[in-house]
Here is the input.
Amino acid sequence: MTGQNILLESKDKVKAWVPKVRKVVEEDIAAQLERLGIRPGGKAVPIEKMSLADEAKSIRIRLQALLDRETLSEGNVKRGYEAVRREIAYTFLNRLLGLKCMESRRLLYLTPPGNPDGIPEETEIITPVPGQAKSRYLRDLRAAGGSRYKYATDAEEILLRDGLTAAFRQITKEIRILFDPDHEYSYLWPTHACLLRIIEMINNDLPVDAYRARDFLGWVYQFFNREEKKKVRDENKGIPQTSYQLAVMNQFYTPPWIVKTLVDNTLGRLWLQMHPDSSLKAKEPPPLPEERTSWEPVADYLVPGTGEKLLYKRLTDQGEVQDFKKARDIALLDPACGTMHFGQYAFGLFYRMYEEEIENAGRKGWPEEPSEKDRRDVSKAIVENNLFGIDIDPRAIQIASLGLLLTAKEATIQHGYGPADARITRTNLVVANAVNLGEDHLRTLIERVNGRFGSLEIKERLFKTIWNNLQHLGELGSLVQVHEGVAKVIDEWVERQAYEKGITAFLKEPAEQLDLYSRERVKQYRLKRQVLE
Here is the structure.
């Protein structure tokens, strides 16, 4: 069986598996919510009428606040409840699957239990040791924990929770958005029985090759939303009613050859215009998509007649003409990034660009110093400086962040270093979404900064501009351009104030037509104008 057929078979298995595991998690979360007084449909029992322990009461208060916010976002309490249940379930499932992906690729490195200052070592927390019931990390944690994990009635539950929390906290240092144990969707854990069932399904129901597939987490995201897509089509004739439904309905899987074509003809073309001698230049005609057996970085899907003869030129702020930009200064932005499929492929091109700078530093047409001198720092540099993504769906950003982390660590290993050498401290992925809390809340915010604006008029105009832009943030995402409206309001106010104070008289005259005295007056006017601004 070919690699492509194995990939398709794995995808089909994931497609059938995701709805099953989702049902297991969501049913457990629903039972947990009801135990805390939040019934299916969102109706809540007043907390003062319940006998809850202090810890449970604290969780209930936080969940109620979360439910209130999602109700406001989704339009009614039923959809708000569904959103809370869905997001808690998805977050925990994503974390467990993320751990499994790291383990299957030998990328999970944690400090040894009981030795927080120790050197991180390869381990597993989801995958059991062959022939044993527990994973290596849980086995070591139990040995280091003494009686805590041996004699208590809930020792096994505490062991699993402590082990997962420890892993989450360590990974959060690199990828906060998904594994953060203090995130609002982490307030409520699945029951111990549910966690064991999920882990069993993860280990037994899918082949290891599925977790090694680059698109695995994207498949999970895609198939997790199948029921939502069907529901929107059946109930609303395919018209989304909320930002979440909009994200679901506009979720499309982009085939790799299309990703490659678009990235080759933008990022790849730019690099070849700067460095015509680059190794990214194809040396032979490209194979058809179905015939391609290697996705090594080479820009061989370039459209003919679209810039082959053009050479790159740029004018610096100092007025100098440059023939290139350093690899570190090139940014690729995907304004609707989803799971960052384009960024995954672009990563390979960027890696080769950094390598070429190291190899050619000091030569004509290349920088004197490369963007990174040490190849072990290249993966980190790419994630933190070159790749940018925006999406309206926070779950897509979760997967995109983890996907880039895995890609960076795998690339580091492939080039002869260890996973720990790719220490990612920042990703440039943004959720362009916010809950519309209403006009009153925004007006209160404007009132708080009242002291910064002496003019009631400019305050009111700014309020209207911001409000008009933010009303549909959840649907427009990166299309919202608040700064343009704000800049226009401020510019118009400054122009009028300058005119009223008579400091615009000479500004429209060409400088060469003014005498020395007038030029000095213009300087004074411009200084006064800056004060106004």
The two ends are 68 Å apart (CA to CA).
